[in-house]
Amino acid sequence: MESQSLTELSTLSLSNGTLQEDELLLLKFASEGDLNQVQELIQKSPNVQVNCQDKDGYTPLNLSASNGHASVVEFLLEREDVLVNKVRNISILFFGIK
Questions:
Q1: Alpha helices in 5-86 (DSSP H)
Q2: Angle 33-95-92 (CA atoms, 0-180°, nearest 5)?
């Protein structure tokens, strides 16, 4: 899975509406493995939906795991509000098997 550009992310939508800017950025930073930006965004926007999904149903946790960004995965797993099996009931452990 390749990282998505911000332009690509800005066109994503959910069944219940369009993603907010902070959610788009969270998906982007998680996909790219940018731990500092993920941490800063969550600190500045404490109400960001950390389980938001891209057009394929992937969450920031899924994107960081599938791209091998262990530091972002570890950070997200420390949060109580991150759902581990959010996407299609597939555990993030699946993404670690390559």
A1: 6-10, 21-32, 35-44, 60-66, 70-77
A2: 85
Four-CA torsion 18, 22, 23, 25, nearest 10 degrees: 110
Cα separations in angstroms, 89 against 7, 14, 93: 28, 18, 11
Predicted confidence at residue 15, as pLDDT, reads 39
pLDDT digits (tens, 9 = 90+) for 18-65: 788 999 999 999 999 999 999 999 999 989 999 998 888 889 998 998
Tell me the C-alpha distance between 98 and 92, whole Å.
12
The pair of three-digit structure tokens given for residue 82, joined into one six-digit string: 């991150």
Structure tokens at 72: 């972002």
Q: What angle do CA 8, 30, 40 make, to 5 degrees?
A: 110
